[in-house]
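Title: Prediction job returns without error message
Component: structure pipeline
Severity: low
Priority: P3
Assignee: unassigned

Description:
Job completed but the reporter wants confirmation the result is attached to the right record. Sequence as submitted:
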Amino acid sequence: MTVATKTIKVQSKGENDIIDLTDEISTKIKESKISNGIVTIFVTGSTGALTTIEFEPGLLKDFPDMLSRIAPDKLNYHHEEMWHDGNGRSHVKASLIGPSLTIPFNDKKLGLGTWQQIVFVELDTQKRERSITLQIIGE
């Protein structure tokens, strides 16, 4: 078994920016020379998240709209009492979605559905540079 670790850097535009990582992750798998295995994708930070989605204009609006119904902007978040940084909702949303994914691949091709893409979701209230770690494991 072989393990390869790669990093992807992304610059977000701020809250609700959804960035498609699928092609870049596919490239990193090919560069790893591992043909079959799994890739674990992890974003560093407590206000960013990773998921899969159909990366199309309707869902790029629907997804943030859904999150705002779950963790509305105008609620009182106890996180604000400690830090006063205006991003309590960002932490709640990121916790719900999660910081990591594991996806299988065979013959260096991700095991995704036809309309399924891997995305980073920026949930912080300001733009950020993010570091996303890929741990590619297999043979």
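Comment from assignee: result matches the submitted record. The first helix runs from residue 22 to 32.
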